[in-house]
């Protein structure tokens, strides 16, 4: 992890972008049944009766999640490098790791908020993506595409702080303090992902619920702002109304945290190993070059002595 190992080679922005996209798509494909269960629970519709039904919409879901995860990975790397200020001899503190991740999540909301809005409104208006976008812009302007933006910023900041910040920090602490887990890094990663995923679900679910209400009500007839929406939901349905569908979402977040971190760690380990191998080859080449320059000198001195 970044917090405990100076020897690992950081990924470039392009590499973070690619790894994030792959990790986001992979975790979505693996967990599509969990998402389907969550959607059915929230919408009150029956569960699928066959395997294809559980995976219906997986391509759209993966195509939506992958670019957002890619953006979060990329900006997380950029912000981490900015915090280091060129000093590669030190590790980021736990707070800096979490702060960089939160910042990356907040930045990703610039893209994620209108994507969420279009998804919700497309289902509501029963139009294709282009006509949904045109209708919203014509009626509410470009600024209308960012209704619920502050809620999305808060949700993504907390969510990304969880999987790119808190999860690796917890995992690193577990490995550092437990001999048992030090010998079982996979178990430590699972525990770290589950702890961070559960906390992220608890803190972000009410915000996500309020955001969904806001973005489904473009005119603001029933829902005015984030805090007002949460207050109304609590007064009419109790705190349970803010946590509807939380269990499957928690399972999904824990799985997403684990998969994305494993993909990132695998990429970092691969790059570090290749860099180490190149270093050894370079060192061997230098030694060989040194030998080549000394051999003729020895031969020359021998001939002079004779």
UniProtKB/TrEMBL annotation:
User: Is this entry keyworded Membrane?
Assistant: yes
The protein's location, in the record's own words, is: Mitochondrion inner membrane
Give start and end residues of every Solcar repeat. Answer: 92-173, 184-270
State the Pfam families in the record: Mito_carr (PF00153)
What GO cellular component entries does it have? mitochondrial inner membrane
Domain of life the protein comes from: Eukaryota
Q: How does it sit in the membrane?
A: Multi-pass membrane protein
Gene Ontology molecular function, alphabetical: transmembrane transporter activity
Q: Which family does it belong to?
A: Belongs to the mitochondrial carrier (TC 2.A.29) family.
Keyword tags: Membrane, Mitochondrion, Mitochondrion inner membrane, Transmembrane, Transmembrane helix, Transport
Record's InterPro entries?
Answer: MCP_transmembrane, Mito_Solute_Carrier
Ranges in a coiled coil: none
> What name goes with this protein?
Mitochondrial carrier protein
Q: Give the classification, highest ranks.
A: Eukaryota, Sar, Stramenopiles, Ochrophyta, Bacillariophyta
């Amino acid at each position: 992890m970044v917090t405990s190992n100076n020897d690992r080679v950081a990924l470039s922005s392009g590499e973070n972008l690619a790894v994030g996209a792959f990790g986001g798509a992979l975790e979505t494909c693996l967990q599509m049944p969990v998402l389907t269960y969550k959607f059915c629970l929230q919408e009150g519709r029956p569960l699928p009766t066959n395997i294809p039904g559980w995976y219906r919409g997986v391509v759209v879901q993966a195509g939506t999640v992958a670019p957002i995860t890619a953006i979060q990975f990329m900006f997380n790397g950029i912000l981490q490098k900015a915090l280091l200020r060129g000093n590669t001899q030190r590790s980021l503190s736990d707070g800096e790791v979490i702060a960089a991740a939160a910042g990356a999540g907040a930045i990703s909301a610039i893209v994620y908020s209108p994507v969420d809005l279009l998804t919700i409104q497309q289902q509501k208006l029963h139009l294709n993506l282009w006509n949904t976008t045109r209708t919203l812009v014509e009626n509410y302007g470009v600024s209308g595409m960012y209704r619920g933006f502050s809620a999305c910023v808060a949700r993504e900041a907390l969510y990304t702080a969880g999987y790119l910040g808190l999860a690796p920090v917890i995992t690193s602490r577990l490995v550092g303090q437990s001999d048992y887990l030090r010998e079982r890094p996979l178990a430590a990663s699972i525990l770290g992902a589950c702890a961070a995923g559960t906390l992220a679900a608890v803190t972000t679910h009410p915000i996500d619920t309020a955001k969904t209400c806001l973005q489904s009500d473009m005119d603001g007839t029933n829902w005015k702002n984030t805090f007002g929406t949460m207050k109304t939901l609590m007064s009419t349905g109790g705190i349970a109304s803010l946590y509807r569908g939380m269990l499957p979402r928690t399972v999904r977040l824990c799985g997403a945290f684990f998969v994305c971190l494993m993909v990132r760690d695998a990429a970092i380990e691969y790059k570090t190993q290749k860099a180490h191998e190149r270093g050894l080859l370079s060192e061997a080449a230098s030694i060989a070059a040194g030998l080549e320059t000394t051999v003729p000198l020895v031969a020359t001195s021998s001939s002079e002595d004779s």
